[in-house]
Amino acid sequence: MIEQINSENKDKVISFFKEHWGSSEMIISSGIYKCENLDGFIYEENLQIVGLITYVIKYDEIEIISLDSILEGKGIGTVLIEKVENVAKQKQINIVSLVTTNDNLSALRFYQKRGYRITSIIPDAVNEARKIKASIPLIGNDGIPLNDELELKKII
Residue 21 is part of a domain; what is its CATH number? Predict the structure, then answer.
């Protein structure tokens, strides 16, 4: 079941972020976000969140702030991205963007398969975020030093 993030499921969303990220605060090059306060969608199975996406609308684009799927390979992430892309279409917004970190090779593969293109690299963005949120690790996935962000965009 997919539903919008709302006041009724906000506590579940906060718990999800605390369990999977340590907190609901996301620090990326475009800003500092409390994810439970953002627009988004949750994907639930058996009353448990197994997927979650948050986004912000900025002028002429929608920026995805977070995308999580606990059950990878089941199409949950794809369905959630499609929900955000449909919001963009409804609001006549032509660009959906996001950032991911340099170590997140699975995310890069996932997004590019769905039509997202790397549009810029933000050197040292993670190092800057770490000054605010010290819990961001130095080493990321596959032992890759975690330093930079990559911005990806899709024209809708």
Answer: 3.40.630.30
